[in-house]
Design goal:
Blueprint lengths: L10 H22 L6 H12 L3 E2 H8 L3 H13 L3 E5 L7 E5 L1 H9 L3 H9 L5 H17 L8
Antiparallel strand pairs: 1-3, 2-3
Helix pairs in contact: 1-6, 3-4
């Protein structure tokens, strides 16, 4: 048997694998629910349901993504009539985003899908292990100056 790749000794490799698995499972749940949206779109809809009328910058921050892909996702959701953009009357460069009525209905129909995904994927951990796992992730993010305040 050959020696494992050095890549396999790095946490980033395993975190990428875990992230891919979580996203694949969440996409399957969204497909089963006939949501008609991708995981990235679900993330934006979920954030907007809790923080309506936020800017693209803030939306990107809370999604843990860069602004450019978030702008593209918002554009797709706008075309699907799930979100709307509101331009500030005071500063035309300032745009906020909110769910439309149709977007709110979709979000309501998907209530609990994220929790169900976490429950399924982390069933191998007891409550104490899960809490430690979450605390460790947030600790590493904080070390990298990622503000987890408000999450």
């Amino acid at each position: 048997m050959s020696k494992p790749l050095r890549l396999h000794s790095l946490p980033g490799f395993w975190l990428r694998c875990l992230n891919a698995s979580l996203n694949n499972n969440l996409q399957a749940l969204l497909k089963d629910a006939e949501a008609g949206i991708a995981v990235s779109e679900w993330i934006i809809i979920s954030i907007l349901s809790e923080r309506p009328g936020i800017s693209i910058n803030d939306l990107a921050h809370f999604a843990g993504m860069h602004q450019a892909p978030v702008s593209r996702i918002v554009e797709k959701l706008t075309q699907k009539s799930l979100v709307s953009r509101i331009t500030s009357a005071e500063d035309r460069r300032s745009v906020s985003v909110q769910l439309t009525e149709e977007g709110t209905k979709l979000r309501d129909s998907l209530h609990g899908v994220g929790s169900k995904n976490a429950e399924i994927n982390f069933a191998c951990l007891d409550d104490e292990e899960y809490a430690a796992f979450m605390a460790t992730i947030k600790k590493v993010l904080k070390h990298h100056h990622f503000d987890t305040t408000g999450y």
